[in-house]
Amino acid sequence: MAVDGNWNLTMTTPMGDRQATLSLSSSGGTLTGTQGADGNSTEIFDGTVNGDDVAWKVSITNPMPLTLEFTGKVAGDGISGEMGIGPMGSFPFTGTRA
Q: What is the DSSP letter of 86?
């Protein structure tokens, strides 16, 4: 599938741009993988894929405990969309295939 593989993400946040790595694997409509930043890596959950549309969640603890909700679209070697940060709203993310 077009989404499978490793990605380098840039997330625009209230604290400035943050870098992350993302490793995705799709099977049917299910998306699994890991997301890492600042030396920490965690499993994604509630991942879905429908054509070029992707969505997943990841729980973080730094800088504070939050669940980030990603929705985006894959186009070739690029990925982009929105990252929901609970009560802080949604912010854009972009990425390229690693």
A: G
* CATH number of 65's domain: 2.40.128.120
Residue 85: count other Cβ atoms within 10 Å of its Cβ.
17
Q: 38: domain range?
A: 5-97
Answer yes or no: are the C-beta atoms of 58 and 74 closer than 8 Å. no
The token pair at 46 is 């509630």
Q: Number of folded domains in the chain?
A: 1
Determine the Cα–Cα distance for residues 15 and 72; give it in Å rounded to an integer.
Answer: 21
pLDDT in tens, 40-59: 899 999 999 999 999 999 99
| Average per-residue pLDDT for the chain | 94
